């Protein structure tokens, strides 16, 4: 990882990735995950990289070129998606009023069978750039919620 200082507060880093080679990312798009992600607790720094022309983004490890996750805002496909963060989680992440929510995506070889994890969203605090995967206990959401209904998949398929 290279860090290029541009201004006192703003900086750009270049992240080595196995999929896209070297990628330039604004320091404002790098999030700290103090406890890592489940199964990847040692990885605590990730960059949020938009996939241009699609509703998707990648959560790319800053340190490990082979580690990235495909994300999407669940509200894009499930407009009524909602949950409450506990006061402990809000305090832990320093959340006052701004928050971004993403779901991890699993792409299937048949695009219409691709799923997103609504049960364990990625919650980001854009104010202090802290993130966490939150498991929603006692929820009816699924870990493999189909992204596209049959008719939606046909109209969006070209974007994935």
Automatic annotation (TrEMBL):
Subcellular location: Cytoplasm
Primary location recorded for the protein, binned into one broad class: cytoplasm
Cross-referenced SUPFAM superfamilies: BH3618-like
Top-level taxon of the source organism: Bacteria
UniProt keywords, alphabetically: Bacterial flagellum biogenesis, Cell projection, Chaperone, Cilium, Cytoplasm, Flagellum, Translation regulation
Keyword Ribonucleoprotein: no
Reported function: Acts as an anti-CsrA protein, binds CsrA and prevents it from repressing translation of its target genes, one of which is flagellin. Binds to flagellin and participates in the assembly of the flagellum.
Classification via NCBIfam families: PRK13285.1-1 (NF009793)
Family stated for the protein in its record: Belongs to the FliW family.
Quaternary state and interactors: Interacts with translational regulator CsrA and flagellin(s).
Protein name stated in the entry: Flagellar assembly factor FliW
Gene field: fliW
């Amino acid at each position: 990882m290279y860090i290029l200082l541009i201004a006192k507060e703003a900086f750009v880093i270049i992240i080595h990735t196995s999929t896209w080679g070297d990628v330039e990312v604004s320091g404002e798009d790098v999030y700290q995950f103090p406890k890592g992600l489940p199964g990847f607790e040692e990885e605590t720094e990730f960059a949020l990289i938009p996939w241009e022309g699609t509703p998707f983004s990648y959560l790319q490890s800053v340190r490990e070129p082979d580690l990235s996750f495909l994300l999407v805002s669940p509200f894009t496909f499930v407009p009524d998606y909602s949950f409450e963060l506990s006061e402990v989680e809000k305090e832990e992440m320093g959340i006052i009023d701004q928050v971004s929510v993403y779901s991890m995506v699993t792409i299937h070889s048949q695009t219409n069978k691709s799923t997103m994890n609504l049960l364990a969203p990625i919650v980001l605090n854009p104010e202090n750039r802290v993130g966490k995967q939150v498991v929603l206990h006692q929820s009816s959401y699924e870990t493999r919620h189909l992204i596209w209904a049959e008719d939606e998949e046909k109209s969006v398929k070209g974007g994935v």
